[in-house]
Amino acid sequence: THNLPPGLEYLNQLDQIIIHQQVELLEAILGTETSSKYEIKNPLGQRVYFAVEENGCFDRKLCSPIRAFTIRIADNAGREVIRVIRPLRCNSCCCPCFLQELEVQSPPGTVAGYVVQNWDPFLPKFTIQNESKEDVLKIIGPYATCGCFEDVDFEVKALDEMTTIGKISKYWSGFVNNVFTNTANFGIQVPVDLDVRIKAVMIGACFLIDLMFFENSLDGL
């Protein structure tokens, strides 16, 4: 573990990561879009990291699902251990030349990997890349992401797209949460021996999926 990026040692023990978006009172009452804040937990519900989105009010209000952002992820001691950077890009299958690409750094300033959207007319598809931009894993979502009162699974697959090794799940939280707060609850399941840098990139992929497919949805309601 001495070769791991500082702060990622704990990910070395996990095969499941829970991401819970915190409810902002102003956003819940007035519908005003505020910077997202997340708790990242282990399967026992214990907080491992805390994440805060940084961007401008203009980005959140006018560019909501495609907005540029920087998400800073800190450990329980307040030390920033992961940084997720998303530029402003297109979010349409009709424009395959300028699709989503997200960079994950750990420690901040050192690239851990990338999440790259792949063009597909029907399915949400992404490639997980390492720091050298070499393909490592694929993420393939369902035809419909509305959920309809159930979880929505994005499968994590080997590069051949045949073998499933994990998943990113959007948990359906119930009528009150989705209608009045639209908060996000996600679970990431990956092999425990997966490189911790790629686990950090998977957390970034989870944030990207949230904004692309669930930011303004009511999850099937």
TrEMBL record:
Molecular function terms from GO: phospholipid scramblase activity
Cellular-component GO terms for this entry: plasma membrane
Pfam family, one: Scramblase
Signal sequence region: none
Keywords assigned by UniProt, alphabetized: Calcium, Lipoprotein, Palmitate
Coiled-coil region(s): none
Cofactor(s) essential for the protein: Ca(2+)
Role: May mediate accelerated ATP-independent bidirectional transbilayer migration of phospholipids upon binding calcium ions that results in a loss of phospholipid asymmetry in the plasma membrane.
Similarity comment text for this entry: Belongs to the phospholipid scramblase family.
Name of the featured protein: Phospholipid scramblase
Gene source species: Urocynchramus pylzowi
